[in-house]
Amino acid sequence: MRLIMAALLVGLSGAAMAATTEPAGFPRDADTLRALDSQQLRIVRRAGAQCWHSGQGGLGSKGPITRACIINGSEGMIASLKDPALKSFHDALPMHARYDEYRPAYFWQRLVVVTK
């Protein structure tokens, strides 16, 4: 049992390190990041609406079933689009902001790199 737990912890730490490195070609210009932010927010809002219509509660509901429904719906749509830039942008967002339809623009703006 301890070996299984140790292997699990090593695997999780490796996945966390892989998530913090950005892939080659990750967009850093403001226009592309603004578009990705808008697309990702539309996906989160659509997932929230689908959860509300399925009886899981709306976006205003903060229950665990609603949050799980929104996360699952958002992740499923992101995966089905097979857009590497959108996926890497989605993964770059902090967990508390990733599924928040009211998040401020600060989260995509901090990813912009200005080159001169």
If you had to describe this structure to a student in words, what would you say it looks like?
This protein is mainly α. It has a domain at 26-97. The chain is built from 6 helices and no strands. The protein has helices at 2-20, 30-53, 64-81, 84-92, 95-98, 106-109. The radius of gyration is 16 Å and the shape is elongated. The model is unreliable at 5-10 and 12-20 (pLDDT under 50).
Task: Summarize this entry quickly.
The chain has helices spanning 2-20, 30-53, 64-81, 84-92, 95-98, 106-109. By secondary structure, the chain is an all-alpha fold. Helix 2 (30-53) crosses helix 3 and helix 2 crosses helix 4 (84-92).
Describe the SSE topology.
Layout: H1 2-20, H2 30-53, H3 64-81, H4 84-92, H5 95-98, H6 106-109
Radius of gyration: 16 Å
Helix percentage: 55-70%
Low-confidence stretches: 5-10, 12-20
Q: What is the string of SSEs from the N terminus onward?
A: HHHHHH
Major sheet: size, sense and barrel closure?
A: none
- What integer is the average pLDDT? 79
What gross morphology would you assign? elongated
Structural class: mainly alpha
Whole-Å distance between the termini? 55 Å
- Number of helices, counting only DSSP H or I runs of 4 residues or more: 6
Beta-strand percent range: under 5%
Give the total of beta strands: 0
